[in-house]
């Protein structure tokens, strides 16, 4: 019996049917489209079995599957190593083409190259599309073709290019949904994938504060954040729709979206930054890397209320306010002289919105080792940060229940730690 000729669309960091470039292109093909998602075992095996992000992915896929059922279709969900899954699918179907959206992280690039090689060797064409950014790869570069390593000129070039095409075209695939492969694939439960439900949940995004974002964004007690970052990370929202909307609402909010793309470009052009200093001159710094002090930082028991509140918020919810992230990161690297990779790895484990480019970029910014980073001699004073941004202690009391009962002594004296950090950096920076 001849196998039915089909195309595939491979969902990854784009968990939506709305304004999805690769999906839109797949549905233009003359073959019915099977939408597939692969729970990658090489990623899953590093996670706890109640990881909230896996639960959010599963929930998002269930929503997609429910919508597909309205068109007589369904989502094919697999678990395994992508290369092995695709080998199996090639044997099972007569695949005429595979479509996906690009991912710019180093491991994802290698994954896609290996899958493309497998498909090509079987006479199958793959097609990859830009979807999770407005501008990618070499679209925003200097006159000489080299990538920007300073944010402001990157932002200016980005805005100039955006304004020349604004609004960015969006891709409405709904008229082509009849081209989905007619199917009723079994949708696995979270338990069948090997995971359990987490008490930590991804919150719905909320854009009501965006108009006043520049006025409210630094005050954690206001809870005025959009909660967009996990949705951007997993692609449950369209970056094109968001940027077109933000460009009309608030320039500072838009600039944060541009920072996201800046760090993605840095990771793409300089993949070493995933675990090495962008500025190699900082490789000579002698970090203290005290294990006990790192543990106290992780648990939110440093004796500095702003630091501890942030870490407890992270541990309990998977979120941390952006202003507080800067404070806790600076504290780890400067006050405790623990290298940024330790903090980056802990954030990667805990953050619901973990995205390598932004996480690495911001940690290196705080440590002073990255591109366009804070200078090494800038050492945030956590107490001053608290007085400026949580003067009445509302945010602190939310996360430190024992705060008014006599809070613990600071793990380190600020003045001593600041002087020690500056001296250590000076001595360690390679000439």
From TrEMBL:
Keywords: Chromophore, FAD, Flavoprotein. Its cofactor is FAD; (6R)-5,10-methylene-5,6,7,8-tetrahydrofolate. The keyword Flavoprotein applies. PROSITE patterns: DNA_PHOTOLYASES_1_1 (PS00394), DNA_PHOTOLYASES_1_2 (PS00691), PHR_CRY_ALPHA_BETA (PS51645). Residues 5-134 form the Photolyase/cryptochrome alpha/beta domain. Pfam families: DNA_photolyase, FAD_binding_7. InterPro entries: Crypto/Photolyase_FAD-like_sf (IPR036134), Crypto/Photolyase_N_sf (IPR036155), Cryptochr/Photolyase_FAD-bd (IPR005101), Cryptochrome/DNA_photolyase_1 (IPR002081), DNA_photolyase_1_CS_C (IPR018394), DNA_photolyase_N (IPR006050), Rossmann-like_a/b/a_fold (IPR014729). It comes from the Bacteria. Belongs to the DNA photolyase family. This is DNA photolyase family protein.
């Amino acid at each position: 019996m001849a196998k039915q000729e089909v195309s595939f669309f491979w969902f990854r960091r784009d968990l939506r049917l709305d304004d999805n470039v690769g999906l839109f292109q797949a549905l233009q093909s003359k073959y019915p489209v099977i939408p597939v998602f692969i729970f990658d075992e090489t990623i899953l095996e590093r996670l706890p079995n109640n990881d909230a992000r896996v639960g959010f992915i599963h929930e998002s896929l269930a929503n997609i599957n429910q919508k597909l059922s309205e068109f007589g279709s369904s989502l094919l969900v697999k678990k395994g190593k992508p290369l092995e899954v695709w080998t199996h699918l090639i044997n099972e179907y007569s695949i005429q083409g595979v479509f996906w959206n690009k991912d710019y992280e180093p491991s994802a690039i290698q994954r896609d190259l290996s899958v493309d090689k497998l498909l090509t060797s079987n006479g199958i064409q793959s097609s990859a599309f830009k979807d999770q950014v407005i501008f990618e790869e070499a679209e925003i570069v200097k006159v000489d073709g080299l990538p920007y390593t300073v944010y402001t000129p990157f932002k200016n070039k980005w805005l100039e290019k955006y304004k020349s095409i604004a609004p960015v075209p969006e891709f409405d695939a709904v008229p082509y949904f009849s081209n989905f492969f007619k199917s009723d694939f079994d949708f696995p439960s979270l338990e069948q994938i090997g995971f359990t439900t987490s008490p930590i949940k991804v919150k719905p995004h909320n854009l009501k504060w965006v108009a006043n974002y520049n006025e409210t964004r630094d005050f954690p007690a206001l809870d005025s954040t959009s909660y967009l970052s996990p949705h951007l990370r997993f692609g449950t929202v369209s970056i094109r729709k968001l940027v077109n909307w933000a460009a009309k609402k608030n320039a500072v909010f838009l600039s944060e979206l541009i920072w996201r793309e800046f760090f993605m470009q840095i990771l793409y052009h300089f993949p070493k930054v995933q675990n090495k200093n962008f500025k190699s001159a900082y490789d000579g710094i002698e970090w203290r890397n005290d294990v006990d002090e790192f543990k106290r930082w992780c648990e939110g028991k440093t004796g500095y209320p702003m630091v501890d509140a942030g870490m407890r918020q992270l541990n309990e919810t998977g979120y941390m306010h952006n202003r507080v992230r800067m404070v806790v990161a600076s504290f780890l690297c400067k006050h405790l002289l623990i290298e940024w990779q330790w903090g980056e790895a802990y954030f990667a484990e805990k953050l619901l919105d973990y995205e390598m480019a932004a996480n690495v970029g911001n940690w290196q910014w705080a440590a002073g080792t990255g591109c366009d980073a804070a200078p090494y001699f800038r050492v945030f004073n956590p107490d001053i940060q608290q007085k400026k941004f949580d003067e009445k202690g509302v945010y602190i009391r939310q996360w430190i229940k024992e705060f008014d009962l006599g809070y613990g002594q600071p793990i380190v004296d600020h003045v001593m730690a600041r002087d020690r950090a500056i001296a250590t950096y000076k001595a360690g920076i390679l000439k």
